[in-house]
Amino acid sequence: MSVQRRAAALSFALLAAAPVLFLASAAIARESAPPAKATLEALFTPGDPIDARLVALIDGAKREVLVQAFSFTSRRIAKALVAAHARGVRVEIVADRAQTLELAGSAVPGLARDGVPVWLDGNFISAHNKVIVVDAESPGATVVTGSYNYTSAAQYRNAENVLIVRNDPPLAAQYRANLLALRARAERYTPPP
After folding, report:
1. Is 135 one of the catalytic residues?
2. What range defines the domain where residue 26 resides?
């Protein structure tokens, strides 16, 4: 075989292999890419639309939304949780027992009536956690925590804060584990008809 034919055959072989080599190198790059860096977002009321940001996070959930609530009267946030549940996202709530049963306008009974699993935590003077964990087992795992109750007063009348931590699966796993441990000791809630 002449040098020219060998060169042509080699060139053809390299061109034919190029897509395979490109795909293999892209797969290796994906596997070795560092995880997304955690991001932090602090929001405050009065002023910041915390309720809208929480609704957007819930609307963007792919697999799971876990909520710990003290006071919960926000119809807007409750509606987003019901919609997530309806589209197949696992939604669960662990709420303070006294606030749920005694607070006029609590959204928790309505959430339970709409099929969202709810547990009432009466094991403490106050189950005072205010936490939302979104898709804890994904690279984009998100944790929301702070003083903000899921209420109209928190949004419009109180000085409140939340911290939203995105892309931090280890932190989300800690919050998720704590929520599930508290849920295990809480009582499953069945609302009155």
Report:
1. yes
2. 1-33
**DSSP secondary structure letters along 72-117:** B--HHHHHHHHHHHHTT-EEEEEEEHHHHHHSTT-SHHHHHHTT--
User: Is 79 considered catalytic here?
Assistant: no
- Catalytic-labelled residue, pool 48, 79, 114, 128: 128
For the chain, the domain total comes to 2
In this structure, the answer to whether residues 87 and 126 fall within a common structural domain is: yes
| 170 phi and psi angles, rounded to 5 deg | -60, -40
Nearest Cα to 145, choosing from 54, 64, 81? 54
Check if the beta carbon of residue 107 is closer than 8 Å to that of residue 73. yes
Q: Are residues 109 and 60 in the same domain?
A: yes
Name the pTM for this structure. 0.81
The C-alpha atoms of residue 102 and residue 149 are separated, in whole angstroms, by 16
How far is the C-alpha of 21 from the C-alpha of 70, rounded, in Å? 55
- Residue among 51, 85, 96, 130 flagged as catalytic: 130
pLDDT digits (tens, 9 = 90+) for 19-53: 444 444 444 444 545 567 999 999 999 999 999 99
Is 128 known to be catalytic?
A: yes
| 131-134 sheet: strands from edge to edge | 39-45, 160-166, 142-146, 131-134, 64-69, 90-96, 118-121, 187-188
Distance CA(69)–CA(129), nearest Å, equals 6
